[in-house]
What does this fold into?
Amino acid sequence: MSNSQSMRVMYLLLTLTIMPGCQGDNLPLPNDFGTKVSETEIQRWNIDIHLDGEGLPDGQGHSKAGEVLFIKDCAMCHGLKLGGVRAMGAGSMLTGMRAINKLPNATSLFDYIRRAMPLTDPGTLTDEETYALIAYLLIETDVISQDELVLDRESLLKIKMPNKKNYLIDTSARFMLSEKHTLLVVNIDK
Ligand code: HEC
It folds into this structure.
């Protein structure tokens, strides 16, 4: 991309981000194409959790409840001992340094699980169920060496992921609008 092209892309991104009234109902529909997106529909998709915990909902979940849920909704694809299921491929392994242990932030687990799992029915887990599942998974993958764990917004944020030290902050990321959104991009896998 030439310099002037990348400036144009940057300008477009900034315009879309900061222009008031440039969202949802206020957008004109050119050529009667498409349908207007309602605020409720936007809210359904606007569920991202930031690395600093922004977006984490209220509620809490106990690892024991997470275990029951995992056996019912997850084990068929991830295995009762989290070692994965052959038919689901290597991605179904939740143990080892290439899965949960690899992540720099526990907040990403909340975002991912609530958004994408169970694979057959994504978007159906409640916030409490998601906290409970994460509590169970953190114990089972030895990130937390406890028998039981209750997770909520505050305690999730305090979880120290073992692989965090192997990530670097990419301060040169050009399209990131603030420090908070800066990606952790380098992962030195063991
Ligand atoms: C129908 C099969 C299926 C079910 C049911 C399912 N998963 Fe998954 N899950 C997968 C697959 C396949 C992947 C790997 C996706 C990929 O690699 O992109 C995955 C990935 C994941 C990951 C990311 C692992 C990583 O390496 O970072 C987590 C965490 C996870 N699942 C948790 C759950 C939980 C919790 C449940 C139950 C609520 C669940 N899954 C139910 C198939 C399933």
